[in-house]
């Protein structure tokens, strides 16, 4: 068995409170998934992530394939064991990073040839190879190999990109089904297996999105993601695409919007029926000194915080807000201290995870007339 | 009252198990003090330091004076409050950093003129100014302003340097006694005050060391440090100087050897009767991937650890050794991940603090014949 989704309650707007049963963790949804690119949510120890209530984190296939290498991770029992993370994990397909980070890409129907951003070495990724890598990593959820269509893309470009993504989805699924028993933890979780999600693309074209969703559903993935959003398009277009695609997707499978978003966005999308979201924003912004709070955004390096003895967020009870002042966080950043990234990230993740906790609670309540 | 030292047990070799009562903490000695240069033990959150059993940490006067500035820290209630550290603290005098980090120094009997290593701005440190800064920071223990004599130094140079240090010790003490009531937490700890330690210098000349110790004892400091060691001299010379000076110092006051050392050194010096030691070694080495373990030193970046699934130290039960493998720590370092410094530092500090815990336990036991 791959995953199982137990719907607990659904509101009229589409938002649903559910439990997503994965081999390593039953995830309470809607859920926000912190990004742990290279086998670490940058600057935060795993026990702290646990205390923060993170249920599922991401690993990036492209990064882990290049370093330390998926075969090494397979030999060490998979990514969970390698990084000592007992809860759920999801890996992306590597496609996004191949297209955004690597050099000298050459895309053919067969796959993508690229040079590593680390050492310039040459590599070739195909849907089959992405599956092999993701099976070796052994996350609870793997993603089909896709091309994230850029924005803006004209219709011809979006169509061609979608054609590639759909062909690759088919090949991803076939290879995954044939090899998913090779996951390194197969023996530890008898009867449980990885899940594979298909990714809806199609640029900002409604009919292409529809075509994409229908083709993927016909293939019958374990869950469905909406990709190619938050790539530079205006926010109302993001919202429109999500609103368009969500009702097309089956109700009994998880729905994942990739790479979003700001705090108010993740709340809004969760209420519309998105079950899973991930974004580098809370962690990356933290490292640049941008804190998300109940009172808005704080640029912690600002001189006005130099002697501000209030907590980062007076309405937050995270370990950072309980103990440290804005003045101290500003000082750490000014002084280029490593603790700056750690404390800022802990707060931002607490804020994001707290939002989703509140959304889950509100989705459990009977709706008001 | 400044500090009080309760001697619990003394062994023939001179080593003593004691309790050092300071305003913010009763410190079990012998003690190792992690260095928290700019108001943070680099890469480690304060709650982790507490879990590790750190009883007293250092702050560097030079760094904190330059950024965020001692007057700002005074206005915020002192360094303990600013960094949220409720246990004991010690600040150095700023002298060592003025001499080692700053540019264009000009030393006169009056003090030291220097340029900031941060922005080139011009500053003037005198013994009186060092006291004012340290009183504003409000550590439990402050240090007299001294010149750390370099190694090698010929006799004339060591004599002249000592003359300066002794004159500055007198002026430090006079100014400290006149102003110590201005410490920011005076009202919170009625009847308790900061302590000031004198620093024995004299290069590697026994008679100069003796002269230095005698002059300082005549001034009657709250405790005594041995400075100017671990500055490049051979290790048996360090040991000889410590062995020479320790018996000269009063038994009823704490003895602090500054800037030492390797794990076996801190154990050895503690057994000889040194009560307090500090060193950047465990924290700085950690950031460069050097781990101290019961089985020797590990250069964690070494390729041989790439798939080593053992803990950093099989005999260590710190939070890092309980959870993470050598392979993972190697990966974090290879990938330049921030978590590398955090985990490596936590282990090294656990190892250093663990050594001192064992030494304390052994000093409590009745000696064998």
UniProtKB/TrEMBL annotation, chains A, B:
<dbReference type="InterPro" id="IPR004803">
    <property type="entry name" value="TGT"/>
</dbReference>
<keyword id="KW-0671">Queuosine biosynthesis</keyword>
<comment type="subunit">
    <text>Homodimer. Within each dimer, one monomer is responsible for RNA recognition and catalysis, while the other monomer binds to the replacement base PreQ1.</text>
</comment>
<keyword id="KW-0479">Metal-binding</keyword>
<dbReference type="InterPro" id="IPR050076">
    <property type="entry name" value="ArchSynthase1/Queuine_TRR"/>
</dbReference>
<feature type="binding site">
    <location>
        <position position="146"/>
    </location>
    <ligand>
        <name>substrate</name>
    </ligand>
</feature>
<feature type="active site" description="Proton acceptor">
    <location>
        <position position="92"/>
    </location>
</feature>
<dbReference type="GO" id="GO:0008616">
    <property type="term" value="P:tRNA queuosine(34) biosynthetic process"/>
</dbReference>
<dbReference type="InterPro" id="IPR036511">
    <property type="entry name" value="TGT-like_sf"/>
</dbReference>
<feature type="binding site">
    <location>
        <position position="201"/>
    </location>
    <ligand>
        <name>substrate</name>
    </ligand>
</feature>
<feature type="binding site">
    <location>
        <position position="318"/>
    </location>
    <ligand>
        <name>Zn(2+)</name>
    </ligand>
</feature>
<feature type="binding site">
    <location>
        <position position="228"/>
    </location>
    <ligand>
        <name>substrate</name>
    </ligand>
</feature>
<comment type="function">
    <text>Catalyzes the base-exchange of a guanine (G) residue with the queuine precursor 7-aminomethyl-7-deazaguanine (PreQ1) at position 34 (anticodon wobble position) in tRNAs with GU(N) anticodons (tRNA-Asp, -Asn, -His and -Tyr). Catalysis occurs through a double-displacement mechanism. The nucleophile active site attacks the C1' of nucleotide 34 to detach the guanine base from the RNA, forming a covalent enzyme-RNA intermediate. The proton acceptor active site deprotonates the incoming PreQ1, allowing a nucleophilic attack on the C1' of the ribose to form the product.</text>
</comment>
<feature type="binding site">
    <location>
        <position position="316"/>
    </location>
    <ligand>
        <name>Zn(2+)</name>
    </ligand>
</feature>
<feature type="domain" description="tRNA-guanine(15) transglycosylase-like">
    <location>
        <begin position="14"/>
        <end position="365"/>
    </location>
</feature>
<protein>
    <recommendedName>
        <fullName>Queuine tRNA-ribosyltransferase</fullName>
        <ecNumber>2.4.2.29</ecNumber>
    </recommendedName>
</protein>
<keyword id="KW-0862">Zinc</keyword>
<feature type="region of interest" description="RNA binding">
    <location>
        <begin position="259"/>
        <end position="265"/>
    </location>
</feature>
<keyword id="KW-0819">tRNA processing</keyword>
<feature type="binding site">
    <location>
        <position position="321"/>
    </location>
    <ligand>
        <name>Zn(2+)</name>
    </ligand>
</feature>
<feature type="binding site">
    <location>
        <begin position="92"/>
        <end position="96"/>
    </location>
    <ligand>
        <name>substrate</name>
    </ligand>
</feature>
<dbReference type="GO" id="GO:0046872">
    <property type="term" value="F:metal ion binding"/>
</dbReference>
<comment type="similarity">
    <text>Belongs to the queuine tRNA-ribosyltransferase family.</text>
</comment>
<comment type="pathway">
    <text>tRNA modification; tRNA-queuosine biosynthesis.</text>
</comment>
<feature type="active site" description="Nucleophile">
    <location>
        <position position="278"/>
    </location>
</feature>
<dbReference type="GO" id="GO:0005829">
    <property type="term" value="C:cytosol"/>
</dbReference>
<feature type="binding site">
    <location>
        <position position="347"/>
    </location>
    <ligand>
        <name>Zn(2+)</name>
    </ligand>
</feature>
<feature type="region of interest" description="RNA binding; important for wobble base 34 recognition">
    <location>
        <begin position="283"/>
        <end position="287"/>
    </location>
</feature>
<keyword id="KW-0328">Glycosyltransferase</keyword>
<dbReference type="InterPro" id="IPR002616">
    <property type="entry name" value="tRNA_ribo_trans-like"/>
</dbReference>
<dbReference type="Pfam" id="PF01702">
    <property type="entry name" value="TGT"/>
</dbReference>
<keyword id="KW-0808">Transferase</keyword>
<dbReference type="GO" id="GO:0008479">
    <property type="term" value="F:tRNA-guanosine(34) queuine transglycosylase activity"/>
</dbReference>
